């Protein structure tokens, strides 16, 4: 972790109880500054020489024949104010990724700019941020996390936007320029743990995987995570499949029960917001994210009653890649209050999307070579049709076990793929047989 030391004098701040701080000095203190519930007994001269705001507050206090001032709304509270106060006294303070943002916001509040005194704390903090913090992958993530409790100061000072750009730029860089020290949550490679059977005491240069940053970003709350991913996508140097891998890792980490297609012990509003954000962050490239993950996301969206637009978008995406799905993926529980076991309607919509790809192509053939390249995504191969036909047959066999399944839904789904040729129809016959047995 990067750090910077300011000042050279010994720290002479002392505590008297929980709510009193003072400077041990032969000179009597001549000002009391109240920060929240903490009283600071200090000296005017070192403070006023560097803080324009304290100059104004003390001037107002003198007019009222009072040497006590109040700054209850200073960002970062007593701890951040104390850093600034020690800087005024020339005492040693250490800034790092955990406290630098609070100190920066407090210094802005206290108006400790260069116009008040050259070499003031705002200038020094900015140098530290730009030359050290934003050059470090780990520190940039930590600093971004600390800004959450210091809004809107961090937005106005562009600390948040600078953190996001720093993180996105590093995630987008050529992996040949990435050092393993950038990451801090990844699992170590066998050679690093000295457990590689070919390890002979000589450390080999590691090949950095393209998704080296994925796990690290899972530490971020969804609001920051969303902005970082959007920035990464905007830069356009990270492929869609890596972005998809990042979203999958985040959902697995952040949504309880997601991997099993259920939602457990979750703040519903928070999880709903997370799922909706995941949907709109999905990369547009076909095949950039697995159909299985899309279906899990759809299950979560339905369980959490997410917005209709988001669910519709997922249905479209899944329909275009349905040949990659499994029967288990499609077994989506019916909404609460329904008599059926599974939500057959949503599967009908997904299969319809798959079938419509080719129908849409036949309506208006592409007039140019360029358009052919664009619309070729919608072409359905015979192999994909056969795969989906078998998938639907298998799905019908599963839902046929439900005694509350209407015959009309069974027929509608079977008819959707009736035009897809397949060498045998054994799967469909088994499904029909199962349905008739349950109904009899």
From TrEMBL:
Family classification: Belongs to the NPH3 family.
InterPro entries noted in UniProt: BTB/POZ_dom (IPR000210), NPH3/RPT2-like (IPR043454), NPH3_dom (IPR027356), SKP1/BTB/POZ_sf (IPR011333)
Record's protein name: NPH3 domain-containing protein
Keywords (A to Z) from UniProt: Phosphoprotein, Ubl conjugation pathway
Species whose genome carries this gene: Aquilegia coerulea
SUPFAM superfamilies: POZ domain (SSF54695)
Domain of life assignment: Eukaryota
Chain ranges of the NPH3 domain: 211-440
GO biological process, one term: positive gravitropism
Domain BTB: 29-97
Pathway field: Protein modification; protein ubiquitination
Keyword flag Heme: no
Signal peptide positions on this chain: none
GO cellular component, one term: cytosol
Gene3D superfamilies cross-referenced by the UniProt entry: Potassium Channel Kv1.1, Chain A (3.30.710.10)
A Pfam family the protein falls into: BTB
């Amino acid at each position: 972790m990067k750090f910077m030391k300011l000042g050279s004098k010994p720290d002479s701040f002392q505590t008297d109880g929980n709510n009193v701080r003072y400077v041990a000095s032969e000179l009597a203190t001549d000002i009391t500054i109240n920060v929240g519930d903490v009283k600071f007994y200090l000296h005017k001269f070192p403070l006023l020489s560097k803080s324009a705001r304290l100059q104004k507050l003390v001037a107002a206090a003198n007019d009222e024949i009072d040497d006590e001032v109040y700054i209850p709304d200073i960002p970062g509270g007593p701890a951040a104010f104390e850093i600034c106060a020690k800087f005024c006294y020339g005492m040693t303070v250490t800034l790092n990724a955990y406290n630098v943002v609070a100190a920066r916001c407090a210094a802005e509040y206290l108006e400790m700019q260069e116009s008040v005194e050259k070499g003031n704390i705002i200038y020094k903090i900015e140098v530290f941020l730009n030359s050290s913090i934003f050059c470090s992958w780990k520190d940039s993530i930590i600093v971004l996390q600390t800004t959450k409790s210091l809004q809107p100061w961090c937005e106005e000072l562009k600390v948040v936007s600078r953190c996001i750009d720093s993180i996105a730029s590093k995630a987008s860089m050529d992996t040949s320029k990435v050092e393993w020290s950038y990451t801090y949550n990844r699992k170590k490679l066998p050679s690093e743990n000295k457990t590689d059977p070919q390890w002979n005491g000589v450390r080999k240069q590691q090949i950095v995987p393209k998704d080296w940053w994925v796990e690290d970003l899972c530490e971020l709350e969804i609001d920051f995570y969303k902005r970082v991913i959007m920035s990464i996508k905007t830069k356009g140097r990270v492929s869609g499949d890596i972005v998809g891998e990042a979203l999958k890792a985040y959902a697995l980490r952040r949504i309880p029960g997601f991997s099993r297609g259920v939602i457990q012990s979750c703040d519903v509003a928070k999880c709903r917001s997370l799922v909706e954000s995941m949907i709109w962050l999905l990369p547009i490239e076909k095949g950039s994210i697995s159909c299985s993950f899309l279906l899990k996301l759809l299950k979560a969206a339905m369980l959490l009653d997410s917005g209709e637009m988001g669910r519709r978008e997922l249905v479209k995406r899944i329909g275009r890649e349905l040949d990659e799905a499994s029967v288990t993926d499609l077994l989506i529980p019916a909404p609460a209050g329904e008599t059926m076991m599974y939500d057959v309607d949503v599967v009908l919509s997904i299969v319809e999307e798959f079938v419509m790809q080719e129908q849409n192509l036949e309506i208006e053939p592409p007039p140019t070579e360029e358009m052919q390249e664009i619309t070729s995504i919608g072409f359905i191969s015979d192999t994909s049709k056969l795969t989906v036909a078998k998938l639907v047959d298998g799905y019908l066999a599963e839902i046929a076990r439900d005694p509350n399944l209407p015959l009309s839904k069974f027929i509608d789904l079977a008819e959707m793929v009736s035009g897809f040729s397949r060498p045998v129809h054994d799967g469909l016959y088994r499904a029909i047989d199962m349905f008739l047995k349950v109904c009899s």
